[in-house]
Design a protein that fits this description.
- The structure is a homodimer.
- Chain A has about 400 residues and is α/β, with parallel strands linked by helices.
- Chain A has 2 domains: about 10-50 and about 300-400, Alpha-Beta Complex (Aspartate Aminotransferase, domain 1), CATH 3.90.1150; about 55-295, Aspartate Aminotransferase, domain 2 (3-Layer(aba) Sandwich), CATH 3.40.640.
- Helix content of chain A is about 40%, strand content about 10%.
- In chain A, strands 2-8-7-6-5-3-4 form a 7-stranded mixed β-sheet, with helices on both faces.
- In chain A, α5 crosses α9 and α11 runs parallel beside α13 (about 385-400).
- Chain A is globular and about 60 Å long.
- The mean pLDDT of chain A is about 95.
- Chains A and B meet through α1, α2, α3, α5 and α6 of A and α1, α2, α3, α5 and α6 of B.
Chain lengths: ~400, ~400
């Protein structure tokens, strides 16, 4: 097989969230009667249950009908007025200065920002430290750009006042020549928030060893229980080579517009724009208009959304925890849960397929987040509350049929 | 400089269309008084002069407000209903069977399709044949994926019944180990259409030498003078490894939605989807709804648009041709002209900067389309007709001040 053939053979999407329809139909060992109920797709949030920020569509309509050509064709890095407006809002939110002219870029979703940032920083053979577990695309991106994945462990069951990153291991791999460290905070899929001490130490180590940082803060607005959150970019010791990624696709339910933003070091942002010029030119010009509603939600809207999600988390965590053999860390921020299931007769990918076909419940297998998570699944609980509880009940029932 | 540093140093965007605001401000040799007039940006079409297909926005609004989650989150390759609908329309248009399930993908613009197709096919060191002149991103894409550009000449001034591709050279480079041939038909920037004989010969040679083909047919709906057009995918001898790219960003003025489509060999489309999963997940879900208006324009709308563009072409070609020392091939399809200017006292990039600052006229330097086009500029004449004529007049006036 050619080099590029091998690369694509590794780059699977069949088990990725939202791609379940592409799964090969195996003959599955169904046990017991099907469990009927409203289909729930935990692979991503349900924007029918939690609709986009009010007025975002109005901004898009205005962009198409009134702003016109200027909205359709922006610079590759995004429209200058939108960049300026967002730099003001995000500076306040993240507590750091953002240069809207040179240090910021609008992208097609945060996935777009991740791809561009990785493309800007990862060359052939470069060592990239990746947390396990972390967002499934992180590892695929390193492979696509011919980098070398250097995993760093996170003991997320061992603590609840920090994420649980193995800082000793992190320093070891930094010392061992890691060029870039990419991580999500809050962590996807665990929903753990890094403590101020952890963030401070990561910044310190990155500066000391000359490691570049990409911090994916996609879920940083949806913090539960009034917990604190530390933006690495606001730390005094933040390293020079740093990109922070944010976007309105999750809590704000605006994924359908494919909008993301990255800010940080000018030279990295400049490379990201060069790459965007050949990848997709720009985030859809008309969609960029929807950014106007972000961080300008109606009074109480965001607070209400957080309360509703916290309630669903409480309900699901309670159901999962009370089931013998299931271990789960309550989400501290974001909409993910990453429960560990007891030993089953079937492997996790098979269980996920059975669950989908026999109980209309779609979840993402843990192995998407690191090869060792063969006993875990990820759930996005941004769903209709009643439907979500019923789906978890069906899942637990089905699980009991396959327990070892 | 690191390998990746060198790669990005080559990947310039400052002179790319739409990025003129990023040009370094040099001290320019202005001659004579400024030439006032309405600013015209010939680097891309003006969607205020030629607005998007009627009803496209309504489809988007319906997608957001009524279809909801199903519209926001499609499979990475696009929503299955949209894929099916488009496969029917495009099969009719291109005259070939399209497999909507396995052989088609929706992308963020045709730029997105090009990037994914190139990423799917170009590995380190692979030889890729590129027409000169051709779309400026083609060469950049080869460089980004570490391929080797193998240029093929097109004698576009030497004929008017075919594009003028050097078929002997094409066969030589195919024989010499070229793996992939990428070309646009109609050609961007010349506006030349490949003859049936040329298309047939390209297909034949590709099959014979086992070369993969990417055919960018972005402007294939805007054909002037009732000329014929040959879709390579419809040729009986079309090779197995073939991707055709189309989209509604140009004639249809829908660039602000960032929509493109690629269809062809299943294995290439499958790779493109795998890549899309880490690049930007999908073409913006809500925007995908706008595809419903494509190839379903109101009666007479497309014909009227073609007539209007043909008239502008006639006016500009007449102005340019009557200027001593300027050579131009009349556009056969699409909205581009690629006139060759007489020898000037300043290089083409400098002239383009002076033109922009002194006469409010933005054009793209020929060097974006091949290093040898130091005396040519590209013009997108999808503009307000009166403003376009006035801008060309100013350009010719300014040009006279810098003639050798």
């Amino acid at each position: 097989m050619s080099t590029i053939g091998k690369k694509f053979a590794k780059l699977g999407v069949d088990n990725a969230p939202g791609q379940e329809g592409r799964c090969k139909e195996d003959s599955l060992d169904f046990r017991g009667e099907p469990l009927p109920g409203r289909a729930v797709d935990f692979s991503h949030g349900d924007v029918d249950a939690f609709p986009p920020i009010p007025n975002s569509l109005k901004h898009v309509i205005n962009g198409v009908e009134h702003i016109g050509a200027r909205q359709a064709y922006t610079e590759y890095r995004g429209g200058s007025e939108t960049l300026f407006m967002l730099s003001e809002k995000l500076s306040l939110f993240a507590g750091c200065a953002i240069d809207s002219l040179q240090g910021m870029i609008l992208t097609p979703g945060t996935q777009g920002a991740l791809f561009l940032a990785m493309g800007a920083l990862v060359g052939r053979g470069d060592k990239v430290a990746i947390v396990e577990p972390d967002y499934f695309a992180n590892r695929k991106l390193v492979e696509f750009f011919d980098g070398e994945i250097v995993p760093v462990k996170m003991d997320y069951f061992g603590c609840n006042d920090r994420a649980g990153l193995d800082m000793e291991q992190l320093e070891n791999v930094f010392r061992g020549g890691v060029k870039l460290f990419l991580f999500s905070n809050p962590n996807n899929p665990v929903g753990a928030v890094y403590s101020q001490q952890e963030i401070h130490a990561i910044a310190e180590l990155a500066g000391h060893y000359g490691v570049s940082l990409i911090v994916d803060e996609l879920y940083s607005r949806q913090i539960f229980d009034g917990r604190g959150y530390t933006h690495l970019c606001a730390e005094k010791n933040a390293p020079a080579q740093l990109v922070t990624i944010l976007g309105p696709s999750k809590t704000e339910s605006m994924s359908g517009y494919r909008l993301g933003v990255a800010f940080g070091s000018r030279d990295i942002i400049e490379r990201m724009e060069k790459l965007q010029a050949i990848v997709s030119l720009r985030a859809a010009g008309y969609c960029q208009a929807a950014f106007a509603s972000w961080f300008s939600e109606p009074a109480g809207w965001m607070a209400g959304r957080i309360v509703e999600h916290q309630q669903i988390r409480d309900d699901l965590v309670s159901m999962l925890s009370s089931c013998d053999g299931v271990q789960v860390r309550p989400t501290e921020a974001g909409s993910y849960l990453f429960p560990q299931l007891p030993p089953l007769d079937v492997d996790i990918k098979t269980f996920v397929k059975i669950l989908r076909q026999h109980a209309q419940v779609t979840v993402t297998p843990g192995t998407e987040f690191g090869p060792q998570f063969t006993d875990s699944i990820r759930i996005n609980f941004s769903q209709d509350a009643v439907a979500a509880c019923s789906a978890i009940e069906r899942m637990l029932c089905l699980m009991s049929r396959y327990r070892k």
